[in-house]
Design goal:
By secondary structure, this protein is of the alpha/beta class. The chain contains 20 helices and 21 strands. The chain is globular and about 65 Å long.
Length: 560
């Protein structure tokens, strides 16, 4: 069967010459052909993600057209404006995929609003809401290596598409032949017929206004003298992040030159993920050179931001997503109370795998902290519930441990633009009072306890990888561990049982241990990886780290 599909692709006019060259190069290589054609990329977590190349198990214009036809079929059942917003980041073939998606939608009689330049995830979410669209499409593979690209589908609220809508789209994709099933007209024809229009300047400006309105202490940065090094990691952050920082009054910004402009090959860091040291290394070296107070990096689609803070001894320390979530929650709460801008009955939201430290901070400031499943769409869903009740102003902050932050209801996905703005404002504020982010973090630990949150990630590559992950999760459910090493399991929560959790069904297991430590195990919905999330609480960092290390060793055999 897969050999037949290969021959069909080989004989077709694939338009993209790279695809035909690849197919010729693997002629006679059964393993290579099987890997590309025996399965199709799955439309999971409201989208596709995979390596670029030929075949149904790769990202290419034909798979994108097929997925877009699925979105079009769903949109046609929805009424409304019959409009879809599209954006794309700096990844290889990003514009090609965005342009072809627009052509499929236009051929289906659906209106398109597409950015005339690469723009990040929050800009796509905002445009979807601004133009009252039925859906949005973001061409991105987030922080994956250069050989990846992807396709993320958004609903009319600017949040990643709901599971119900995604199921309808997936069903339509299944009925669409990958090479011949999608309707299509050229981008030029779509523009000529009035179906395809660019996102206007008024929408772009409205996004900046919405972000800047969420400053906690407006005007503070103009006099604080913050010195910043910033890296867009060759992605979409350069224009929006520097625009907002300039508007706030932060002018001493040094851009990492090798990572300033869009470059889908990501030649300076093989894995453009602000969570890892290698991606921030050039920025850290530059920060030391210029004596910056702060080093900031956004990922290619600028929905996540990572930082390194300057310590009293002049060294730089990376701040984890959990630590930054706690710091921002603390800063927003204290600042809004001080300024008299805290809403009545404020609400913050975090994912279930994020730090319990946030619970202590929220309790201290009288903030209701809601917990959701992993994935920012669930935080977006909490905002939507507040909006439906006429109480959207109660939402002050949402975060997840993977460096995603949002402080306002203007979009429904994580936003590195507002994250960058608030982190810089916070750093400027602490600098202005003779303190620092590092000093405030230590004060938070002294007040609430020395929490440590760490993640182990285990990869399961190849065609059998997803099955191996499923087997591991089934094994944990069938034979629940009574202990991890020397620590007994006090309670287990299976998030696949919504009747027990009050949350939608999810493939996550949580173990609370006898000393209060926690282990959560979750397979990725988009990549062949299982993540183990550890929370330990010690009298100091060394004690918390020692317990985490012991737990990690105890769990290793489960993943072998």
């Amino acid at each position: 069967m897969y050999q037949d599909d290969y021959k069909r692709w080989l004989e077709a006019d694939l338009i993209d010459c790279d695809l035909h060259t690849e197919l010729k190069n693997i002629e006679g290589d059964d393993d290579a052909i099987k890997e590309r054609f025996s399965i199709a990329l799955s439309f999971g977590t409201a989208g596709l993600r995979g390596t670029l190349g030929a075949g149904t198990n790769r990202m290419n214009i034909w798979v994108v057209r097929q997925a877009t036809q699925g979105v079009a079929e769903w949109v046609k059942t929805q009424g409304g404006t019959q409009t879809v917003a599209i954006s794309y980041d700096s990844r290889l073939k990003g514009w090609n995929f965005a342009r072809d998606a627009a052509g499929v939608l236009a051929a289906n009689g659906i209106n398109v609003r597409i950015y005339d330049e690469l723009m990040p995830v929050p800009a796509l979410s905002f445009a979807t809401r601004y133009y009252n669209c039925n859906a949005g499409i973001m061409i991105t593979a987030s922080h994956n290596p250069a050989q990846y690209n992807g396709f993320k589908a958004y609903g009319p609220d600017g949040c990643q598409m709901t599971d119900d809508a995604a199921a309808v789209v997936y069903d339509a994709i299944q009925k669409t032949d990958v090479l011949t099933g999608a309707k299509y007209m050229s981008f030029a024809e779509g523009v000529e017929k009035g179906f395809i229009k660019f996102v206007g300047d008024e929408c772009k400006e409205a996004l900046y206004e919405a972000i800047e309105a969420r400053q906690v202490r407006p005007g503070l940065c103009k006099t604080a003298g913050l010195k910043l090094v910033y890296s867009p990691l060759n992605g979409t952050g350069l224009v929006p992040v520097t625009r907002v920082l300039k508007d706030m009054g932060i002018t001493d910004v040094t851009i990492v030159p090798e990572q300033e402009y869009p470059n889908g090959y990501f030649t300076t860091c093989s894995y453009p993920n602000p969570e890892i040291f290698a991606a921030l290394e050039k920025g850290l070296n530059l920060a030391k050179e210029v004596g910056a107070d702060l080093m900031l990096a956004t990922d290619p689609d600028a929905d996540r931001v990572g930082i390194a803070m300057k310590c009293p001894d002049g060294s730089y320390e990376l701040v984890s997503g959990n630590e930054m979530g706690a710091l921002l929650l603390d800063y927003i709460c204290a600042g809004r109370i001080e300024k008299g801008t805290m809403p009545k009955n404020p609400v913050a939201v975090m994912s279930i795998v994020s730090t319990p430290l946030a619970e202590k901070i929220a309790e201290n400031y009288g903030v209701e902290l809601r917990q959701t499943l992993t994935g920012f769409k669930w935080i977006g869903d909490q905002i939507a519930q507040l909006e439906a009740a006429g109480e959207v102003d109660r939402f002050i902050f949402g975060f997840e441990e993977s460096y995603g932050y949002l402080a306002g209801p203007y979009v429904r996905d994580k936003d590195a633009i507002i994250g960058s703005m608030l982190i810089c404002e916070m750093a400027a504020y602490y600098r202005s009072i003779g303190s620092s982010i590092k000093q405030r973090l230590e004060e938070i630990y002294a007040q609430y306890g020395r929490y440590l949150n760490k993640i182990d990630t285990v990869e399961f590559p190849g065609l059998s990888g997803m099955q191996k992950m499923a087997d591991i999760m089934a094994g944990l459910r069938d034979n629940a561990p009574a202990a991890f090493g020397s620590l007994k399991v006090a309670s287990v929560t299976d998030y696949a049982k919504p009747e027990e959790t009050g949350l939608p069904k999810a493939n996550v297991l949580s173990y609370v241990l006898e000393d209060g430590a926690k282990v959560m195990i979750r397979p990725s919905g988009t990549e062949p990886k299982i993540k183990a999330y550890y929370t330990t609480l010690g009298k100091d960092l060394a004690a918390a780290q020692a317990e985490k290390d012991a737990l990690s060793e105890a769990i290793k055999p489960i993943f072998s």
